[in-house]
Design brief:
- Helices cover 41% and strands 20% of the residues.
- It has 323 residues and is α+β, with helices and mostly antiparallel strands.
- It has two domains: 84 residues, Beta Barrel (OB fold (Dihydrolipoamide Acetyltransferase, E2P)); 157 residues, no CATH class.
- The strands form two sheets. A six-stranded mixed β-sheet has the order 6-7-9-8-10-11.
- A hairpin with a 5-residue loop joins strand 4 and strand 5.
- Helix 3 packs parallel to helix 4.
- The longest helix has 52 residues.
- It is elongated and about 95 Å long.
- This is CSD domain-containing protein.
- It comes from Crinalium epipsammum PCC 9333.
- Keywords: Coiled coil.
- InterPro entries: NA-bd_OB-fold.
Length: 323
């Protein structure tokens, strides 16, 4: 049988029965909506003063510990006004349950936890449990922050690996043909980026679609002043998203396991802005304008989500032009 704590919600002075609330567990389908049923006879035997108060209609703020009999629905079988009167085994089980609630930092503490712990274990033990809980929360937070720093460091290494660790020529400015093209190929791009963008050579990109002319150009501007360009990208959202997922070099899903807020923090600390444009052939390339797709100061979604929206808009525009 289980032990509970609750307040008298209703009492019928004529019929001598009432209902007491539950604290520790949610209602089940067999429980009366007003609480657990009890009869005055269970009160009179040990607590006659309380029985007289109930019969007089005074039950506001009346609370007690009780044992539940589930043989015929849910009803009170035994009542204790003081938790010290609860039999040792049942009290020990209850103490274990309460202490587990304090240690479980995955869930927010219930509103009643302070009050019940104080009544069951006293102020000193309640303070100890509260301190232990806060220490656990701090330890987890420190571990999560360390994990974030590690993931961010790995992502940072990937973002700049082409500049610092790849062989010469792996990253470079556009080919001679592109260098000879007019300045208008950078239409829409902030002027200061025109001479900063370093284009990642397609020969180092494994996806075969990256070697088929056409698609989208994506420029990623980082807070450290670097700007990398990727051309002929068929699915910008997937390509850029793969950086964060870690599947390009690190074969790790650590980033995906983070909550969305942590992911956003990393993205905004690393990337300043993302620009993109789409074109179908050389003629369109010469006039296609870059648009700002994502901005760390104003965007409220991950970069690849913004690129997904860009892809949809461009596809809708293509469909409209065909009509």
């Amino acid at each position: 049988m289980e032990v509970e704590f609750g307040y008298v919600r209703e009492y019928n002075t004529v019929r001598g029965f009432g209902f007491v609330s539950r604290t520790f567990k949610n209602k089940n389908i067999y429980q009366h909506r007003k609480g657990v049923w009890f009869h005055i006879t269970k009160v009179k035997s040990n607590y006659p003063d309380l029985a007289r108060d109930l019969d007089a209609g005074s039950y506001v703020d009346v609370s007690f510990w009780y044992e539940i009999d589930n043989s015929e629905g849910e009803k009170v079988s035994t009542i204790w006004l003081d938790s010290k009167d609860i039999p040792d085994q049942q009290r020990n089980d209850l103490v274990t349950y309460i202490e587990q609630l304090w240690r479980n930092i995955d869930n927010s503490p219930s509103q009643w936890l302070d009050q019940v712990t104080l009544a069951l274990l006293g102020q000193l033990r309640k303070d100890e449990l509260n301190k232990d809980r806060n220490d656990r929360i701090c330890e987890r937070k420190a571990a999560e922050e360390e994990e974030l720093r590690e993931i961010e460091s790995q992502l940072g290494q990937f973002f700049i690996s082409g500049m610092e660790f790849r062989t010469p020529g792996r990253l470079g400015r556009r080919s001679t043909i592109r260098d000879m093209e007019p300045e208008r190929v950078y239409i829409g791009l902030p002027e200061h980026l025109n001479n900063l963008v370093l284009w990642v050579s397609r020969k180092y990109r494994k996806n075969r679609l990256s070697h088929i002319p056409g698609g989208s150009d994506v420029i990623v501007e980082y807070h450290d002043g670097r700007a990398f360009g990727y051309d002929w990208i068929k699915k910008p959202s997937i390509y850029i998203g793969s950086f964060f997922a870690g599947i390009v070099e690190y074969a790790s899903d650590a980033f995906n396991k983070l909550d969305e807020n942590s992911q956003m923090q990393i993205a905004k600390r690393k990337i300043a802005r993302i620009f993109a444009r789409k074109y179908n052939d050389d003629d369109e390339y010469s006039t296609a304008a870059f648009v700002e797709v994502w901005n760390s100061e104003t965007s409220n979604e991950m970069p690849w989500k913004s690129l997904e929206r860009f892809e949809v808009r461009q596809q809708n525009q293509d469909d409209f032009d065909e009509d």
